[in-house]
Structures are given as structure tokens and as C-alpha cells.
Amino acid sequence: MDVMQSRNFDCAVRRDWKDVERWVFILNRPAKFPNYFADIPAIEKWFKRHETDKGSRILNTAYLDQFGDSIVPLELTQTSDNGTTTFERFEAPLSLLLAHMTGAHTSNTRLYLAQHSLADLPSVLQADMLTPTTSLKQLGRGDIYASSLWMGRPPTRTPLHRDPNPNLFVQLAGQKVVRLMQPDAGRALYEKVRAQLGEAGGRANMRGEKMMQGAELEAMESAVWDDDEGGGKGVEAVLDVGDGLYIPLGWWHAVRGVGPSTSANASVNWWFR
Predict the structure, then answer these.
(1) Are 235 and 182 in contact (CB under 8 A)?
(2) Could you report the per-residue pLDDT of 212-252, keeping only the tens digit for each?
(3) 7 burial class (0-12, 13-18, 19+ CB within 10 angstroms)?
(4) DSSP string of 210-265?
(5) What is the pTM of this model?
(6) What sign does the CA torsion over 46, 51, 55, 58 have?
(7) Which residue has the higher pLDDT, 31 or 241?
């Protein structure tokens, strides 16, 4: 079994489905599947090669513009000149996101499509996703109960949290870095940060406003991504286009979308039992 290392992180890299049962069901460990999902039609239909940076992708607006009236959930993060950050979530036409992603880059305004159920996409775009039913059955019973589309300009970030069930995460455009922690280690780090902020409890499986801005966001990001703060207690996976990542039940994880600010970064995931 190959092991990918970054700093003091490692994540098993799976190039086939041999020993999946042992790795997933007995060891309960995350696994990366390089280029295993490169045949998802959306990868080639929704995006095209960047004109100057061939390693990056941009939106294929000639195709996506026809769906601009579709209503999608968006997250708007704005930073004022004095450093104050505001965060709000709302629904708007897809055309608003497309215009933002293809317009002039502004570092103080970020618009991100987050947690958009594939079932709410137009039927043509749903067909472009090609749900990997066979793969999900090999990772579990194949009972897919929810899905999400994520899309925006890098950098993007999703703070440390956990999901109620296993998760198959696939990169469609750009690159994402995922740091994961075992259930006990992730819970300990989450509660440590919350205690330092004078908070208690909290719903770590909700993408709430406190999680996405202010002191809690910055403290949690530092704890996860700064190795000196304890972030080294976990595994890391770097996902390129077509790569998949199995996130086991109960594992805590944080995600960063990286790459040129003029490029597109997009992912899709399926939760299953």
C-alpha cells in the first residue's frame, strides 16, 4: 500500500479496490483514490483548461450559462478595510455565481456555492454528475441519502467538523487539501478551541455562521493547519481533478480549496450508510 506524506501527515492512497473491506470496515481509515472518478461528465462539460495556467480550470460558461436561472444556495463573505468580516447565506440565481467567478477578482469579497443538493440541480446537470453507485456500494451498503455540490474561486475553506455518516468526496476542478482526524482526536481539538473561546458544546456538523467567521473560525483554522498547535495529529489528502476521498464515519475534517484566484474550484460529495 502506498502512503502519501505531507509534513507529518499521511493518508493511504488506493489505486484499486483490493483490500477495501479491511481498510474501510476493520481499520476505519480514510482512503484516497487517485483519478478514479475522472470519467464524471461534469469535469469536462462544466470546466475547461485555463488559458495561461494549463494546470488549472475555469468555468465553461458557454455550457453553464443556459442554467443561470436555477436557484442555488450561496455564501457571501466580505472583509472591510478595517479587517471586519461578515458572513451571510442566501439563495440566488446561479448566474450570480457565474458572474462572480468570471469577473474581476476582488480579495475582500468571496461568493461560494455550498451544500447544494444534486437533486435540486436541473436534470441535465444532474446527469452530468454520474453518481458512483458501484463505488459507494463497495464502501458501504450503498444507501445514498444526501449529496452536495461545492463551487467557487480559491481560496475556499471549510472549518473542522464531522459528518453523521461516511462521505465520498470527489474533486471536479482545481485542488483541495483535506486534513482529517480520528473521532477522539478531532473531538478533543474541537472542544479545546471552544473552551479557549469561552464556549461549550456546539454542533460541529452544522455549517453555522459562528463557524464561518470571526474568532472561532480563525482559532479553529490555526489549531488544524498549524502543526505547532496540534494539527499534526491526523492525516492529509491532496485532491486533484478526478480524485476521490473516502471519509470514514466520525472522522473530523477541514478542507481548503487552493490554486490561482482566477481559476475554478469545485467538488461533489455523497453521504451514505
Answers:
(1) no
(2) 777 888 888 999 998 665 555 789 999 999 999 999 999 99
(3) exposed
(4) TTTSHHHHHHHHHHHH-GGGTTTSSEEEEE-TT-EEEE-TT-EEEEEEES-TTS-E
(5) 0.89
(6) negative
(7) 241
